């Protein structure tokens, strides 16, 4: 009997030590700025990334509990292996297979973004998730209901306790957990990045593409983030379409500023992982990079808000030969970050 | 029986005391080191008629009729001024209120820790100031909690609070469901300028005073006339604009709704 007790005690101690050890050896999940990136704009002092906060955010990100009927999670339209976009749809689909206004943007390098969505309507990552949750054609759920479902859930109160030191589930902590997960979706390890760090070399074709890119594309797709974060009209023909029974055109940034000079202007997207974030443009109208480059070469439509960079020397668009397009595409493919899309930390647990 | 009578006698005595006290008590001079409270009360009207959901009203200016079903608005950033010109700004954290006609308890609120004084002017914002519209999520609690009191009073796709929501039905509406929907907000834009529907209302009480004394809480009783929502500097016709949300026309409605508010009377505790 005594022995048994000893054994039990030993076992308990062992379990305790093991669990401690497991905790200690868990690699710390912390935000770290890639050396060649600018300073992030997200205020980490208000929401430092922790292992428990990140894991809670990841669980929430992939959980349909955020939607009215449990059928749609953030991960439904933001699939990690597609750089957190949705393939196969021009306009993303939400609950009850309803169409949304636009093609979902990738979730990557959000710590450097000041504004979100194609029109920049949201100006704080911590306020972002409210929009897809409450949109009738996305998750169609009241945020107060989401919090109530989480409070009644067998696991979430404990996970909030671990992450934030309180099992009380507040909107603030809910949104901060989601931000922590998304902030760690950092793409900075493509072949291009490795080339920049002097670790590998690129082929002549790719380097020629980089040269053309810097001459003809980098004024908008600027710097290491491959965007200048501005809103521009890139000359897409305005399309009328029916959105859930209503005749619609997408006015872009004007929807937020109500300023007619912002008509048809959209966020300049990053080109990181562009090869795997098809289809392209705010409405997903182009399926291939070739089509995108053909648009810039010969498809640009004039309008009062067309970006001046696309109307130089009395010519619409950016002249590109097929050889130049091939080289550009070769270069753009070097922006695919295999480590990012396969990062086990970012997959559905 | 005896006990009943003694209780009655006691009650009479108490009433007598209270009544006496009131008679002899005359409004002491305010002591600015002492604090008191002030109550705000909002009563909704359509012209001179009481406002209620499900009642059909006719706007004499347009001949249009409307039957309200929702009325909510934010009152914030309250400031009081004494006749001597001394102002008291209510600490901002405690200065956001959502008036919701559906919830009678929200039609009144009390501000505590107000320095004693004879106040004869009040100002407040209809809506939520632009700075608070851009604050971190952790500073949006209480009446500004988007998942709590302020559920439904926030545009998630275009970050910002909805300041005023007024809905109902009208035979003049051209919407398929016969509704009119006015959701007015817009704090001026974040990185680019956009509409600003924040309106500050200042009401001077003239010779009237709200006497704030420790233990004596006056009430400012405001009349809010919804007819002025339609009939202001811009004539709002339901037939022409049954739905106004984030739209340049909203600014006209904001110019109208600031005129809805007037002081009806003050209850002083003296």
Concise summary:
Chain A has 349 residues and is mostly helical. Chain A is built from 14 helices and six strands. In chain A, helix 2 packs antiparallel against helix 7.
What layout of secondary structure does this protein have?
The complex is a heterodimer of chains A (349) and B (270).
Chain A: H1 2-25, H2 51-61, H3 74-77, H4 125-128, H5 130-134, H6 143-151, H7 156-164, H8 171-183, H9 191-196, H10 204-216, E1 231-232, E2 241-243, E3 246-248, H11 254-257, E4 266-267, H12 289-299, E5 311-312, E6 315-316, H13 322-333, H14 338-341
Antiparallel strand pairs in A: 1-4, 2-3, 5-6
Chain B: H1 2-24, E1 35-46, E2 49-50, E3 57-58, E4 65-82, E5 87-89, E6 96-100, E7 108-115, E8 117-126, H2 130-133, E9 154-155, E10 160-169, E11 179-185, E12 199-204, E13 210-212, E14 219-225, H3 227-230, E15 243-244, H4 250-257, E16 261-267
Parallel strand pairs in B: 1-14, 11-15
Antiparallel strand pairs in B: 1-2, 1-7, 3-4, 4-5, 4-6, 4-8, 4-10, 8-12, 8-13, 9-10, 10-11, 14-16
* Mean pLDDT rating of chain A: 92
Global geometry of chain A? globular
Query: For the report, how would you describe the main beta sheet of chain B?
Result: 11 strands, mixed
Number of helices of chain B: 4
The biggest sheet of chain A, with number of strands, parallel, antiparallel or mixed sense and barrel status, is: 2 strands, antiparallel
What fraction, in percent, of the residue positions of chain B are helical?
A: 10-25%
Give the strand content of chain A.
under 5%
Tell me, rounded to a whole number, the average pLDDT of chain B: 92
Return the structural class of chain B.
mainly beta
Helix and strand sequence of chain A: HHHHHHHHHHEEEHEHEEHH
**Shape descriptor of chain B:** globular
- Got a strand count of chain B? 16
* Poorly predicted ranges of chain B: 16-24
Instruction: Give the N-to-C terminal Cα separation of chain B.
Output: 37 Å
User: What's the number of helices of chain A?
Assistant: 14
Using only C-alpha atoms, the radius of gyration of chain A works out to 23 Å
- Strand composition percent of chain B: 35-45%
